[in-house]
Design brief:
Blueprint (H helix, E strand, L loop, with lengths): L11 H18 L14 E6 L5 H12 L3 E6 L11 H10 L4 E6 L4 H8 L6 E7 L5 H15 L6 E5 L6 H12 L3 E5 L16 E2 L2 H4 L5 E4 L15 H8 L3 H4 L7 E3 L12 H4 L6 H20 L7
Parallel strand pairs: 1-2, 1-3, 3-4, 5-6, 5-8, 6-7, 8-9
Helix pairs in contact: 1-5, 1-11, 2-11, 5-6, 5-11
């Protein structure tokens, strides 16, 4: 594996390998006071984030440091990007200074793929940490890791993805990956937040959340991305919450074993009630902690090959 840019072309064997490696790393670090492995000693990992992030950026940094890599965070505002430097020149500069891996988040769909093309032959790996409204592969992987912990084998499990499908790279990556792992996926959203061409995703679309909940093994709520919206997609936050928010009454409609996920940041009271977000049924903090181990696994397979993990 040279880069991680998408889940759409991720082979089932690779997906399973990444999930298994993350689980093994989590087990290896369990109970350690010093969570440090020597696996990536001498490697340089650079994060290049053109969009704000808490969970993704911090978990990549922690993942790299727990594996003894040298992690450098490039602030776009404090770099030559603010002077007008192109993404291509920035990427080539980072490769020239010795980056073994560049982790990029960018508002333009396809930016990570273009970066990988520019860095072809340099030996620098590229990880897509979110490109526009396109994909977010490591989020999908950590979601799958969390679901496997709670539900076991995902083959045949029915997962509902609910909310702002139109602007969600998380939804796209999860649909690809969950189907690869054998799960059934149903999309639930207001008609105005369903992308044109969604039928090409190969999964059913519903506009009635209450009708879907009793048959779900897990429900994944999406953030309403107001910063990407220009115009009215629904009457009000209250109306959205009434139709598509997961409250306590709707939580009771799910099977007892069903899991609640959210990639964050959560809009409490709109997408999800606080009582639901903080309930034992929710695995939202598990997603965050699993994100570190999942990103460790990705860095390991990109940069360390078959070398020993521990």
């Amino acid at each position: 594996m040279k880069h991680l840019l998408t889940t759409a072309t991720l082979e089932p064997s690779w997906a399973t390998t990444l999930l298994d490696t993350a689980a093994e790393l989590k087990k290896t670090l369990l109970g350690r006071q010093v969570r440090k492995l020597p696996t990536l000693r001498g490697r340089t990992v650079i994060t290049l984030f053109y969009e704000n992030s808490t969970r993704t950026r911090v978990s990549f940094e922690v993942a790299g440091k727990w594996m003894s890599a040298d992690v450098v965070n490039v602030s776009v505002g404090g770099s030559s990007v603010s002077k007008g430097e192109s993404l291509r020149d920035t990427a080539l500069t980072l490769a020239a200074v010795g980056a073994d891996c560049v982790i990029i988040r960018h508002p333009a769909s396809g930016a990570a793929h273009r970066l990988a093309t520019w860095l072809e032959g340099t030996g620098t790996a590229v990880i897509n940490a979110g490109d526009g409204m396109h994909e977010h592969p490591t989020q999908a992987l950590l979601d799958a890791a969390t679901l496997r912990e709670r539900l076991g084998d995902l083959a045949g499990k029915r997962i509902g993805i609910v909310g702002d499908l139109l602007h969600s790279r998380v939804a796209r990556s999860n649909v690809h990956l969950l189907r690869t792992l054998g799960a059934e996926v149903v999309l639930v959203a207001p008609p105005t937040l369903v992308p044109v061409g969604v039928e090409q995703w190969g999964v059913p679309v519903s506009y009635d959340l209450d009708a879907e909940l009793p048959a779900l093994d897990a429900v994944m709520l999406l953030r309403v991305q107001a910063e990407r919206m220009h115009g009215g997609y629904f009457p009000s936050a209250k109306e959205y919450s009434i139709a598509y928010g997961l409250n306590e009454a709707r939580l009771r409609m799910l099977p007892e074993h069903a899991v609640v996920l959210h990639p964050g940041p959560m809009l409490r009271g709109m997408e999800i009630a606080s009582a639901v977000a903080d309930s034992p049924r929710a695995a939202i903090t598990d997603q965050v902690s699993n994100g570190v181990h999942m990103r460790m696994a990705v860095l390991y397979h990109l940069l360390a090959g078959e070398e020993a993990v521990a």
